[in-house]
Amino acid sequence: MEITTNLIMELRKRTNAGIMDCKNALKEAGCDMDKAGKILREKGILKMQARLGRLSDEGRIYSYIHPGGKVGVLVEIASETDFVAKSDDFTNLLKETALQIAGMKPLYLQKEEVPENVLEEEKQVLLKNTDLSKKPPAIAEKIIEGKLSKFYESACLLEQPYFRDEKVKFKNYFNGAAASFGEAVKINRFTRYEIGQ
Length: 197
Fold this sequence. Notes:
This protein is α+β, with helices and mostly antiparallel strands and 197 residues long. The protein has 8 helices and 5 strands.
């Protein structure tokens, strides 16, 4: 199939990517629009990760109070420019992140932030609740790693399933949305409040 101007413009409209990026993605995908979109998202995420070191002090803090006033969230997301931070798409990303935090109750942003003592305590609980005595050490370690990944999925925002689509990790949703800005965007921190907790 020929890569036409119409195909390029349709992909550009869907992804906000540059014309040459769209043309190259279509070529790589054999003119499959969905596959080309996926290629652009993946490349955009890689570019965004390379740019994270360039984050400035731009961005926004967003507050969300759940109906009924029992749960509240503050979330800070950084960007490279004020232009992006003031956009409607950035506001939507802030809202989605706040809703995720309100509903899914993460304790940490990412795995690396889980304190060593909390991780050790979790391992001890898993060891007590799982009969690993008859397993070889290498197999036992794999079982513990598998069970710890479930802990991370519950406790870490970026590892949680996205509340709108449980097949997608929140970090994949966030990175895909952030890649559309064409600059680095990162969650800096969040706080979740709940009456009685």
